[in-house]
Design brief:
globular, 6 strands, NAD(P)-bd_dom_sf, oxidoreductase, 8 helices, binds NADP nicotinamide-adenine-dinucleotide phosphate
């Protein structure tokens, strides 16, 4: 197994011998988290809805010597979540050290324009999915003797970004779940933390960043760039650090 290829390579940190489930690992933040955990020696399972993309990622990871497996799973579907956790339990012998709840979706509209279907999709994908996966993972995390849950929340769960109220509500709920689980499951040696990124250039928000630049026009490019540099990790590769730091403290 390859080790120390990540940004913490050479630091002496190792996750060798640990197991991790990272949801939504084929793109963006999830992809970077899989790479970092596997680079530090963890055995990782991930999932997404697109089998072809999973196969492509697995080829890339195996070429790097990483120990990664993956399943097709729609995280918004209860039965598929149950099947995912059965698989994880079977490949990791009933023990899971790290659960990274990364799957999330967003589409921004003024609040009055959201439909009932929009509400349901965002709530189910972002909140119900993470909540249920924690319930399913609890026995496995407890059995590991040193469990850790990391939620991928958002700055939108703390302050208003103007639109995207449903998304914001799911991320605020995630922040509270983080605290509840930390208190409730500390007795089981399970830690619970969340990471709340600002804009990261991934497939989820590329169109938002592009439209901001288009609206403001080229003459404001210098201003927006300096603003984004101040407040934005423009690459998802900057953000796995936060997740991995949690695994070491
Ligand atoms: N990018 C940002 O600026 C930003 C900022 C704050 C927080 N976040 C949060 O970070 C997390 C990851 O976002 P990202 O920007 O990396 O998104 P992304 O680039 O769209 O990647 C999302 C990943 O999750 C998978 N996925 C999405 N819906 C899924 C579902 N229902 N079931 C299974 N897999 C699913 C995607 O694969 P498939 O689509 O093929 O299934 C993909 O692998 C989200 O929770 C998001 O809210 C992002």
């Amino acid at each position: 197994m390859a080790e120390s290829n990540g940004s913490f390579g050479g630091s002496g940190w190792s996750l060798r011998g640990t197991t991790a489930l990272v949801t939504g690992g084929t793109r963006g933040i999830g992809y970077a988290v899989v790479e970092e955990l596997a680079g530090l020696g963890a055995t990782v399972h991930t999932c997404s809805r697109n089998e072809a993309e999973i196969e492509k990622c697995l080829r890339e990871w195996h070429a790097k010597g990483f120990s990664v497996t993956a399943s097709v799973c729609d995280g918004s579907d209860r039965a598929q979540r149950e099947k995912l956790m059965e698989k994880v339990s079977s490949i990791f012998n009933g023990k899971l050290n790290i659960l990274v709840n990364n799957v999330g979706t967003s589409f921004r509209k003024p609040t009055v324009d959201y439909s009932a279907a929009d509400y349901s999709t965002i709530m189910t994908t972002n909140l119900e999915s993470a909540y249920h996966l924690c319930q399913l993972a609890h026995p496995l995390l407890k059995a590991s003797g040193a469990g850790s849950i990391v939620f991928v929340s958002s700055v939108a769960g703390v302050v208003s970004l103007g639109t995207g109220s449903i998304y914001a509500a799911t991320k605020a709920a995630i922040n509270q779940l983080t605290k509840n689980f930390a208190c409730e499951w500390a007795k089981d040696n399970i830690r619970s933390n969340s990471v709340a990124p600002w804009y990261i250039k991934t497939s989820l928000v590329e169109h938002v960043i592009s439209s901001i630049l288009l609206i403001l026009g080229m003459k404001h490019l210098f201003f927006i760039n300096s603003m984004l540099c101040k407040h934005t990790s423009f690459s998802h590769h900057d953000h796995y650090n936060s997740v991995v730091l949690i695994e070491h403290h």
